[in-house]
Automatic annotation (TrEMBL):
Residues covered by the Tim10-like domain: 20-81
Superkingdom: Eukaryota
Family: Belongs to the small Tim family.
Keyword check for Nucleus: no
Biological classification of the source: Eukaryota, Viridiplantae, Streptophyta, Embryophyta, Tracheophyta
Self-association and partners: Heterohexamer.
Compartments in which it is found: Mitochondrion inner membrane
GO MF assignments: metal ion binding
Described purpose of this protein according to its UniProt entry: Mitochondrial intermembrane chaperone that participates in the import and insertion of some multi-pass transmembrane proteins into the mitochondrial inner membrane. Also required for the transfer of beta-barrel precursors from the TOM complex to the sorting and assembly machinery (SAM complex) of the outer membrane. Acts as a chaperone-like protein that protects the hydrophobic precursors from aggregation and guide them through the mitochondrial intermembrane space.
Entry membrane topology: Peripheral membrane protein
GO biological process, one term: protein transport
UniProt name for this protein: Mitochondrial import inner membrane translocase subunit
Length: 90
């Protein structure tokens, strides 16, 4: 389970550990979301003349988020590859 040997833990300890892991994953997801919003907003929005984005700003935000998500996906795939490599005995 997640690469953690849970054999030495009681059921209550396992639940606490999984709850802590789940909370950390939520925090990491929110941190990533906030990071992409801040980055793309800073890079793409140039003025506050209107309530909505103009076409150029909207296009920039779309490209920015697509690049960020593609990069994140690639990093996750590479991390999974490295994790599998580390888990297999030589």
């Amino acid at each position: 389970m997640n690469g953690i040997d849970m054999e030495g833990f009681s059921e209550e300890e396992q639940k606490k550990l999984f709850n802590m892991i789940e909370q950390q994953q939520v925090r990491d997801s929110l941190r990533m979301y906030n990071s992409v919003v801040e980055r793309c907003f800073t890079d793409c929005v140039e003025s506050f003349r209107r309530k909505s984005l103009d076409k150029q700003e909207e296009s920039c935000v779309t490209r920015c988020t697509q690049k960020f998500l593609a990069h994140t996906q690639r990093v996750n795939m590479r991390f999974a590859e490295l994790s599998q490599g580390a888990a297999t005995p030589d």
